[in-house]
Input
Amino acid sequence: MIQKTFQNRLAMSLVALSMALSWACGGSTVEIDNRQNEDDQDYEEIDPQLRAFADEVRRAECQVLFNCCDARERIERLGISYSEEECLTNAGLLPSGLGLAMLNEAIVSERIVVDWDAADMCVNAFTTQSCSEFTEREAIRTTLPGCRQMLIPQSENGDECILDEECISGYCHRNVFEEDAADVCAEMSGVGDDCSMSSCPTGTFCDSIDYTCRQTLRAGSSCYRAQECRSGRCDPNEQGELRCSEVAPICQGD
Output
């Protein structure tokens, strides 16, 4: 659960790679990857500026992780068993399968415009934050300078899309029930709205009982799924009852 929480936080903090990091499954978001030749070729086709930024993001991850988390925390909480040197050496190995190619295609197609000054500001703010900020901060994407502003969506409602980040509304509707239908930008459901065919905004969840968007629950509230809780954690208490837990720090920090 802590590994998943770590992935979600880091994905929010580095918006340009949010789709890549949130799709990675298990362990740290920094992975030593042995890509096949076709993946090498795909990676080389990524825009050089975007590829350089992705490498910079990975190096920032390595720097913060090894500065703020001791060896035991890295192994037990994040599943990281390699050294800082190995992390930095492999910082550029970003397989296209993790979504970088999709982001590149959206930029090339002008469905997203990147503010590179804001992107640099975001990475710098992430790298220079204190360990306590790194381990305790919620919603880094909305608080670190530049992170929220770096991707500028260009697609109106009704335009075809692949990523939420392409849409001015912030939501790319997946037409999962209509064969051959394209995904399109659409308005996101709000609190109290039906969410059976759409997503709920940040800070809310889709209630699986009546498919209505509701505010996420405070720590101590009864829950059934992690998505219902503000902390992203729904754990059994001493009585075996499922309750929303407090946010657990990634590492102890400074």
DSSP finds ten helices and eight strands in the chain.
